[in-house]
């Protein structure tokens, strides 16, 4: 570490903490001559789901090839030389935002192992809630772990299965998992996609030039001109292979049938607004959240101002419902990233202004309603309310198009510990004071379900994974509640 690196690191860490962290993206294609290049494009379209690192693994009929890098897809995979190092007509790729295991090169996915059945690569979106417990058992039995991610346990479980067929080994392995997963995996003969029994994380099937594709979101299919076929179902494994020159897709359902409970946060914040998740346009749903929010907590005002990016569709819905004009009163700088100029103390003091700045002409002298999709630690809201006042807003009202986040996520979203969640520590009035707004209101849980097309949330049969707002975790939480509370830190220092 160079002298002076620490303050810069902590500056970016602070900036990074002003947000909800993403999760991960997976992509896979089988039997296409440009498999690696298409995977790079797909990962590019899915960059919003994870920005720490990316990787692509291909298979050329005799060997696997892997390229894994820390950083953004565009910076690492837009170069022809990198793509040329990834020959083969089958590929899987991954964008990572870590939830278990640090941001170091050996944790970058897809992970790869040489098994008795041949090479095997896997990419994972989600988080296992018994990953550390399984890992502890495996290590006790002699497993040599090469990474510190939860995902690696799947490789070991497949390797240790006593079944003969590769698919049976994979099923054996995933039956032991608890938590959330959307997997893409590649063996010498097959491309595999799998979703956990509740379908917490998304995964879709598409087709390009007659070849199958798997992707976290439909926006990746649109980017490469592929056709959307269907969502992979909860608890479903799809196996894509080639027989007599034709691609075949088998579907397996190894779990007892269960109702799906996809994560509602995909709709609120994670997924790209142009994606269709579970048959619903994310953009439409976000706008409806804005309509519901306006119905529940109307306020007299002159202008509706979205907090970009993800607050925009809800603010539009709020404006349409309330009849109050919508204006871009905050501009977001899209070039804020880790490669930005090395900040000095002075720049550090400017804080969030690097990311958002007030558009004074639209807010000065006005009663402003700020609309954002969610509030986590409250960092963004505090700074933006102050920014509106500095720009001359007469009143600042804050509206959130989701309910208060009172519980941490363990399924692939890197929300902070409970005691850092503002709504877990404060009541509404305390939060209003903290944020500094004249009024503050959140969308109700029933309002959220109405935006999803339901009458209300049925507590006996909730249709979505919504623990962040309700504390209702739909799976066991072995690692979090078990007696041993295992923690896995990297014992090997790595520069990354
Ligand atoms: O309460 P906080 O801890 O500040 O976190 C909440 C903020 O984080 C997210 O935005 P983010 O900046 O991640 O991304 P966006 O540009 O897509 O809205 C979310 O949309 C809120 O604006
Ligand atoms: N956010 C995610 O989906 C992360 C996947 C996996 N748990 C990891 O940490 O690598
Ligand atoms: Mg935001």
Q: How would you portray this structure in words?
A:
GO terms for molecular function: amidophosphoribosyltransferase activity; magnesium ion binding. It catalyses: 5-phospho-beta-D-ribosylamine + L-glutamate + diphosphate = 5-phospho-alpha-D-ribose 1-diphosphate + L-glutamine + H2O. It is an enzyme of class 2 (transferase). Catalyzes the formation of phosphoribosylamine from phosphoribosylpyrophosphate (PRPP) and glutamine. It holds the Pfam family Pribosyltran. This protein is of the alpha+beta class. The chain has two domains: 17-261, Glutamine Phosphoribosylpyrophosphate, subunit 1, domain 1, CATH 3.60.20.10; 283-470, Rossmann fold (3-Layer(aba) Sandwich), CATH 3.40.50. The protein has helices at 5-17, 35-45, 73-76, 80-84, 131-140, 152-160, 166-174, 218-223, 265-270, 282-296, 312-322, 345-350, 360-363, 379-390, 422-425, 428-435, 445-451, 467-470, 478-481, and strands at 25-30, 53-59, 64-70, 90-96, 111-115, 118-128, 179-187, 191-195, 204-208, 211-215, 227-231, 237-243, 246-252, 276-277, 280-281, 303-306, 330-332, 356-358, 367-372, 395-400, 439-442. The strands form five sheets. The chain has a seven-stranded antiparallel β-sheet. Strands 5-6-7-8-12-13 form a six-stranded antiparallel β-sheet. The chain has a four-stranded parallel β-sheet with strand order 16-19-20-21, sandwiched between helices. A hairpin with a 2-residue loop joins strand 5 and strand 6 (118-128). Helix 5 (131-140) packs across helix 6, helix 6 packs across helix 7 (166-174) and helix 10 crosses helix 11. The longest helix has 15 residues, at 282-296. It is globular. The termini are close together. Magnesium ion binds next to loops. The site of glutamine (GLN) has 17 residues, from strand 6.
């Amino acid at each position: 570490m160079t002298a002076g690196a620490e303050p810069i690191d902590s500056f970016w860490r602070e900036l990074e903490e002003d947000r909800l962290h993403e999760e991960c993206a997976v992509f896979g294609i089988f039997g296409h001559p440009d498999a690696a290049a298409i995977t790079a494009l797909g990962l590019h379209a899915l960059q919003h789901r994870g920005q720490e690192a990316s990787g692509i693994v291909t298979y050329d009929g005799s060997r696997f090839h892997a390229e894994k890098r820390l950083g953004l897809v565009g910076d690492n995979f837009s170069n022809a030389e990198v793509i040329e190092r990834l020959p083969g007509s089958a590929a899987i790729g991954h964008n990572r935002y870590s939830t278990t295991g640090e941001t170091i090169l050996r944790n970058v996915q897809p992970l790869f192992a040489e098994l008795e059945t041949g090479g095997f690569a896997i990419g994972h979106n989600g988080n296992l809630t018994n990953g550390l417990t399984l890992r502890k058992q495996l290590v006790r039995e002699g497993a040599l772990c090469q990474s510190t991610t939860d995902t690696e346990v799947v490789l070991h479980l497949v390797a240790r299965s006593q079944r003969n067929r590769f698919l049976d080994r994979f099923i054996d392995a995933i039956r032991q998992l608890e938590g959330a997963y959307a997997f893409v995996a590649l063996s010498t003969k097959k491309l595999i996609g799998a979703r956990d029994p509740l379908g917490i994380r998304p995964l879709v099937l598409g087709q390009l030039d007659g070849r199958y594709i798997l992707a976290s979101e439909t926006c990746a299919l649109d980017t490469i001109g592929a056709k959307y076929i269907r969502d992979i179902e909860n608890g479903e494994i799809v196996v894509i292979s080639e027989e007599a020159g034709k691609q075949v897709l088998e579907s397996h359902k190894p779990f007892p049938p269960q109702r799906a409970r996809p994560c509602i946060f995909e709709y609120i914040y994670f997924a790209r607004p142009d994606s269709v998740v579970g048959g619903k346009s994310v953009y439409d749903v976000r706008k409806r959240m804005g309509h519901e929010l306006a119905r529940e907590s109307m306020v007299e005002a002159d202008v509706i101002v979205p907090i970009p990016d993800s607050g925009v569709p809800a603010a539009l819905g709020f404006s349409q419902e309330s009849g109050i004009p919508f204006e871009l009163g905050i501009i977001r700088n899209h070039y804020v990233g880790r490669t930005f100029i090395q900040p000095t103390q002075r720049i550090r003091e400017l804080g969030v202004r690097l990311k958002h700045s007030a558009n004074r002409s639209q807010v000065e002298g006005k009663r402003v309603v700020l609309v954002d999709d969610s509030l986590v630690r409250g960092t963004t809201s505090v700074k933006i309310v102050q920014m509106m006042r500095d720009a001359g807003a007469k009143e600042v009202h804050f509206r959130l198009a989701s309910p208060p986040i009172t519980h941490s996520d363990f399924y692939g979203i890197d929300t902070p510990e409970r005691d850092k969640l503002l709504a877990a520590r404060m009541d509404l009035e305390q939060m209003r004071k903290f944020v500094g707004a004249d009024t503050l209101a959140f969308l109700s849980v029933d309002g959220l379900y109405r935006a999803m097309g339901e009458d209300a949330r049925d507590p006996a049969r909730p249709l979505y994974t919504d623990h962040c707002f309700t504390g209702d975790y739909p799976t066991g939480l072995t690692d979090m509640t078990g007696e041993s509370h295992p923690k896995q830190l990297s014992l090997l220092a790595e520069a990354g």
